């Protein structure tokens, strides 16, 4: 058996360390980027969805995103486009995606502020339902509730309508609240929240 000198041994250790560093190692970030690129097909590669009925997810609250992905995964929320995308995702993938999108900047969807009469109608409804109790003062949401301010008008209206009709039952509190108002109220809320600006934020 050949005995290594001290210098040869140290050179060998350094070589191993070098190759450990330079060898490509599959990274979670790379796979998440690839998965996120699939999401961009509908949600937009710059955070602007391709359709007004599709929600913006850039900068949305992490736990809310996590909960929605989980609900799609287990079938609590039904969507033909989302179902095949979330089906192969692991719990780790879902957590990574929620983190990825929550850290993106909220895009400016360039939605106009509601007219004064729509604002007055929407504010009266929001106050009566105490929407700030969950969605916070500027409708920015919290850890588990979504940001509503600046979200897509048609998506907001569709979501509230689905709760109103009982087609979406993931949050029974929302079902009860939306059933207590009419379609005209829902339309006003969608327009107002879509054009609502959070102070100091896009």
TrEMBL record:
Signal peptide: none annotated. Heme c 1 binds at residues 39, 42-43, 82. Binds 2 heme c groups covalently per subunit. InterPro entries: Cyt_c-like_dom, Cyt_c-like_dom_sf, Cytochrome_c4-like, Cytochrome_c_Oxidase_Subunit. It comes from the Bacteria. The keyword Electron transport applies. GO terms for molecular function: electron transfer activity; heme binding; iron ion binding. This is Cytochrome C. It is found in: Periplasm. Heme c 2 binds at residues 131, 134-135, 174. It comes from Hyphomicrobium denitrificans 1NES1.
């Amino acid at each position: 058996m050949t005995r290594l000198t001290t210098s040869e041994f140290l050179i060998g250790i350094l070589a191993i360390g070098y190759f450990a560093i330079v060898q490509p190692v599959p990274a979670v970030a790379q796979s998440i980027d690839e998965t996120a690129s699939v999401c961009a097909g509908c949600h937009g590669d710059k955070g602007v969805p391709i359709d007004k009925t599709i929600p913006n997810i850039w900068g949305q609250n992490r736990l809310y995103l996590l909960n929605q992905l989980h609900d799609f995964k287990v079938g609590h929320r039904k969507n033909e486009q989302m179902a095949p995308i979330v089906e192969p995702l692991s719990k780790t993938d879902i957590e990574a995606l929620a983190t990825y999108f929550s850290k993106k900047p909220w895009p400016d969807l360039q939605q106009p502020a509601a007219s004064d009469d729509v604002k007055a109608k929407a504010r009266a409804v929001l106050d009566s339902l105490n929407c700030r109790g969950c969605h916070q003062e500027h409708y920015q949401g919290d850890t588990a509730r979504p940001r509503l301010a600046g979200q897509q008008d048609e998506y907001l209206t569709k979501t509230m309508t689905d709760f109103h009709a009982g087609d979406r039952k993931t949050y029974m509190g929302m079902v009860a609240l939306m059933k207590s108002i009419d379609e005209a109220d829902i339309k006003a809320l969608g327009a107002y929240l879509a054009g609502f600006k959070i102070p100091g934020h896009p």
